[in-house]
Amino acid sequence: MKLWTFLLVTLFATFVSAETHTWWFNTTWVDANPDGVFERKMIGFNNSWPLPTLRVKKGDRVQLYLINSFDTVNTTLHFHGLFQPGSNQMDGPPLVTQCPISSGEVFLYNFTVGDQVGSYWYHSHTSGQYGDGMRGVFIIDDDDFPYEYDEEVVLSLSEHYHQYSQDLMPSFLSRFNPTGAEPIIDNILFNETRNATWKVEPNKTYLLRIINTGRFVSQYLWIEDHDMTVVEVDGVYTQPNTTSMLYITIAQRYAVLIKTKNSTDQNYAFMNRVDDSMLDTIPKELQTNGTNYMVYNETLFNEAKPDQNYVDSLDDFLDDFYLVPYNNETLYDDADYTITLDVQMDNLGDGVNYAFFNNVSYVAPKVPTLHTVLSAGDAATNELVYGSNTNVFVLEGDEVVDIVLNNYDTGTHPFHLHGHTFQVIARGPAIPDDGSPLNYNASDHDEFPQYPMMRDTLYVRPQSYFVIRFKANNPGVWFFHCHIEWHLDQGLAVVLVENPRAIINDPNQQLTDNHKQICEKVGVPWQGNAAAHTENFLDLTGENVQVKRLPTGFTARGIVALVFSCVAGVLGLAAIAFYGMQDISDVEERVARDLDVDLDDQGVNEDNIERISETGSSLSKKSQF
Ligand SMILES: *[C@@H]1O[C@H](CO)[C@@H](O)[C@H](O)[C@H]1NC(C)=O
Ligand SMILES: *[C@@H]1O[C@H](CO)[C@@H](O)[C@H](O)[C@H]1NC(C)=O
Ligand SMILES: *[C@@H]1O[C@H](CO)[C@@H](O)[C@H](O)[C@H]1NC(C)=O
Ligand SMILES: *[C@@H]1O[C@H](CO)[C@@H](O)[C@H](O)[C@H]1NC(C)=O
Ligand SMILES: *[C@@H]1O[C@H](CO)[C@@H](O)[C@H](O)[C@H]1NC(C)=O
Ligand SMILES: *[C@@H]1O[C@H](CO)[C@@H](O)[C@H](O)[C@H]1NC(C)=O
Ligand SMILES: *[C@@H]1O[C@H](CO)[C@@H](O)[C@H](O)[C@H]1NC(C)=O
Ligand SMILES: *[C@@H]1O[C@H](CO)[C@@H](O)[C@H](O)[C@H]1NC(C)=O
Ligand SMILES: *[C@@H]1O[C@H](CO)[C@@H](O)[C@H](O)[C@H]1NC(C)=O
Ligand SMILES: *[C@@H]1O[C@H](CO)[C@@H](O)[C@H](O)[C@H]1NC(C)=O
Ligand SMILES: *[C@@H]1O[C@H](CO)[C@@H](O)[C@H](O)[C@H]1NC(C)=O
Ligand SMILES: *[C@@H]1O[C@H](CO)[C@@H](O)[C@H](O)[C@H]1NC(C)=O
Ligand SMILES: [Cu+2]
Questions:
Q1: pLDDT for 561
Q2: What's an example of a GO molecular-function annotation for this chain (predicted)?
Q3: Fewer Cβ within 10 Å of end Cβ, the chain: N or C?
Q4: Alpha-carbon separation of residue 169 from 159, 183, 240, 330 (angstroms)
Q5: Which residues, listed in sequence order, are joined to residue 76 by a DSSP beta bridge?
Q6: Phi/psi class of residue 586: alpha, beta or left (left: φ > 0; alpha: ψ in -120 to 50)?
Q7: Which tens digits make up the pLDDT trace of 377-392?
Q8: Higher pLDDT, 558 or 14
Q9: What's the CA-to-centroid distance between 287 and ligand 10, angstroms?
Q10: What is the pLDDT of residue 596?
Q11: Distance from the CA of 271 to the center of ligand 10, in angstroms?
């Protein structure tokens, strides 16, 4: 009898605990002043910004209706870190798993939260919109949270630009920005503001969920005279590890326990600081440190705020490589399949600086890759149908996959894999700008950790490498990309087509009617190969491809350095004023013509190469590569 009651109660509990959350969100521009020094509009939902923190439990259903109320632009929403088992079409990246949602349309993100808990976030995956504010925190609460705490608090970090993404992007991806220098940030935010106040009570344990919702810079985080005990990283519980400082890249999450003091006679500085090594230039007026406040005593706080807290070194942050998952999950078996990706940044024939994985700069196909899978039949296992510029790798079901990433660039990059967490099995040290890049050596490496750290976003150090390992147990089309929005726009992405047959055969994975309508409205076919051919999937004529390369021996930096050196040096300042009144690209054309460089055909008079590279080096600025 007792057992029966128990079983019934358990069954009932399981049954009722799966809730359905229905949200309707209307994208709207909202007047805001996040950093307190500049009024601008931010993208909110229903005329409100910052966006709400969404809370669910595992197994719950989410029905989020996204109403695109932008005047003209498309949008999409990604739930960062969610596995989306059997619901790949709800993952969010446009032209990877869905058609863009055009202005005036409503898309229903309808999915069940998988077997996951912890700290996540959601953000637009379209056109830098999340940098304009379309981002929020997503928490999967856990009834069986393994650590004791009294109160839970979320904290988001990000950087802030005064200009809109749509204005920053064209000048970033321009031949007049040949080094690919990212726009310099105007501020860093702490919980979507600055100088923030966190009121705490004494003698308590807080669970602080820290989420970097930024699009560019990593941040250091520390609290005056308080330690933080890491217990979760990107939704993976860890064995506790106590530190005084965190380094958190964009898209990463850390949940930490913080024990408050027993006395209320003092308040403390809660510092965030930009990793300024990621900035090309550091303007004098940029506040690289943010001082926020952990307030125990408001009376005292109103009298005097704590001063900025200084640390001797920024190198003492917790190295996430050494964290151990709480469940002691051991290293997976050796890889069945190893994908090696070389990261480079370089200019193409149009003088614009692009980013490459294995010499391919990602260009979106004409048909979303998932839709190609669903319409390709037997051809779905053939990488060719996905196009030559999408960097697609087809994975077999349940195989163990290693991604070896060698970074030839001198910058730090946070890479994110959709649909999975991965084991972090190797990561090399930073190599200074004047050293040669350090590649991963499969026949000579440190022993892999027995219990590797698992997460979904991982940084690679400058001119170094990492190796990650995961099981291909989640059929779907999963984007793997640098989360720095600028670098994604430069093409730093690959697409993993995981177990295509299983996707095709799963009734849940078929496109919803709403999804097909969205495609029709935006004029994107929902069937066909990368070039939108439905008859012959191997016919790629008309596919989208990257800009052509410059001829060998000719550096694109040369071209633009040449333009600037000519304009500034040879023609003099008066010429800048003169040319400045005309379309600036005209200047380049005229200079190129004078020097016999054919920009359109990318042909070049060999005699000029020497001169061009000379001017290039004499003028070279600090660059990210
Ligand atoms: C947001 O706006 C939509 C559309 O008007 C409405 O249906 C919904 O109830 C609103 N949601 C909230 C949370 O206010
Ligand atoms: C969405 O917000 C805009 C701007 O406030 C408003 O004009 C529009 O009616 C809203 N749409 C819906 C469906 O509520
Ligand atoms: C933060 O403090 C600075 C300097 O004191 C001030 O200019 C700015 O407006 C403040 N920002 C906010 C959001 O309070
Ligand atoms: C919306 O997406 C479609 C299909 O990718 C594209 O052709 C169109 O230019 C996009 N609209 C805007 C305003 O970017
Ligand atoms: C969401 O998906 C589930 C499962 O396919 C379905 O039963 C439900 O009707 C969908 N919700 C809406 C509002 O269409
Ligand atoms: C950050 O903002 C959220 C939402 O407004 C709030 O609940 C939370 O307490 C804030 N966190 C801190 C550390 O102040
Ligand atoms: C606060 O007091 C409790 C017991 O009274 C003690 O266990 C704890 O260590 C103290 N905390 C601090 C930060 O001193
Ligand atoms: C701290 O809290 C514990 C129980 O939560 C209590 O026993 C203790 O007296 C408190 N200590 C102080 C200094 O408030
Ligand atoms: C807050 O600080 C003031 C000034 O130091 C002090 O007089 C007061 O007792 C403190 N209040 C509490 C609750 O500790
Ligand atoms: C920012 O913080 C770092 C670390 O405490 C410190 O070395 C540096 O001087 C601070 N910068 C400013 C402008 O206060
Ligand atoms: C904690 O992190 C440090 C590196 O920062 C590492 O050496 C140590 O092994 C870790 N300990 C645990 C229990 O995770
Ligand atoms: C993981 O291993 C540690 C010892 O390293 C042990 O204390 C802990 O109980 C283990 N956790 C689980 C969930 O097995
Ligand atoms: Cu990057």
A1: 59
A2: copper ion binding
A3: N
A4: 16, 9, 41, 43
A5: none
A6: alpha
A7: 999 999 999 999 999 9
A8: 558
A9: 10
A10: 42
A11: 10
Ligand nearest to the Cα of 259, by number:
7
Contacts of 417 (CB under 8 A, 6+ apart): 403, 456, 468, 470, 478, 479, 480, 496
pLDDT surpassing 50 at residue 113: yes
Mean pLDDT of the 66-71 span: 98
Distance CA 555, CA 436 (A): 19
CA 219, 220, 225, 227 dihedral sign is positive
> Taking the CA atoms of the chain, what radius of gyration do you get in angstroms?
25
- Taking the C-alpha atoms of residue 111 and residue 448, their distance in angstroms, rounded to an integer, is 36
Cβ of 259 less than 6 Å from ligand 7: yes
DSSP string, 111-148: EE--S--EEEEEEE-STTGGGGT-EEEEEEE-TT-SS-
The closest residue, in CA terms, to atom 8 on ligand 1 is 24
Q: Cα of 203 to ligand 8 centre, how many Å?
A: 6
Ligand 11 touching residue 244 (CB < 6 A): no
ω into 475 cis (within 30 of 0) = no
Q: Write the residue with the smallest CA distance to atom 4 of ligand 12.
A: 328
Nearest alpha-carbon partner for 360 in 209, 546, 183: 546
Query: pLDDT at residue 154 above 90?
Result: yes
Cα–Cα distance, 32 to 189 (Å, whole number): 13
Contact call for residues 44 and 30 (beta carbons, < 8 A): yes
Question: Which atom in ligand 4 lies closest to the alpha carbon of residue 74?
Answer: 1
Residue 308 in contact with ligand 3 by CB distance below 6 A: no
Q: For residue 41, give the 3-state DSSP assignment.
A: strand
Give 82-85 contacts, CB < 8 A, sequence gap 24+: 82/111, 82/113, 82/114, 82/116, 82/120, 82/138, 83/114, 83/116, 83/419, 83/420, 83/474, 84/111, 84/114, 84/419, 84/474, 84/476, 85/112, 85/114, 85/474
Place 550 in a pLDDT band, splitting at 50, 70 and 90. Answer: confident
Tell me the C-alpha distance between 272 and 190, whole Å: 7
Task: Ligand 3, residue 194: give the atom nearest the CA.
Answer: 13
> What is the DSSP annotation of 505-561?
H-GGGSPPHHHHHHHHHHT--SSSSTT--SS-TT--TT---PPPPPPTT--HHHHHH
Identify whether the C-beta of residue 24 lies closer than 8 Å to the C-beta of residue 67.
Answer: yes
Q: Which residues pair with 451 in a beta bridge?
A: none
Distance CA 411, CA 38 (A): 29
Query: What is the C-alpha to C-alpha distance for residues 56 and 59, in angstroms, rounded to an integer?
Result: 9
Question: Could you tell me which residues are beta bridge partners of residue 405?
Answer: 341, 466
Going by C-alpha positions, the residue among 171, 456, 462 that lies closest to residue 345 is 462
pLDDT at 579: 32
Residue 26 makes CB contacts below 8 A (sequence gap 6+) with 45, 46, 47, 67, 69
Q: Residue 616 has what pLDDT?
A: 29
Given a contact cutoff of 8 angstroms between Cβ atoms, the answer to whether 27 and 111 are in contact is no
The confidence score (pLDDT) of residue 609 equals 30
327 lines ligand 8 (CB under 6 A): no
What separation in angstroms does the CA of 581 have from each of 43, 566, 567, 574? 34, 17, 13, 11
Name the phi and psi angles at 294, rounded to 5: -100, 110
Mean pLDDT of 248-271: 98
Helix 556-565 and helix 606-619, axial crossing angle in degrees, nearest 10: 70
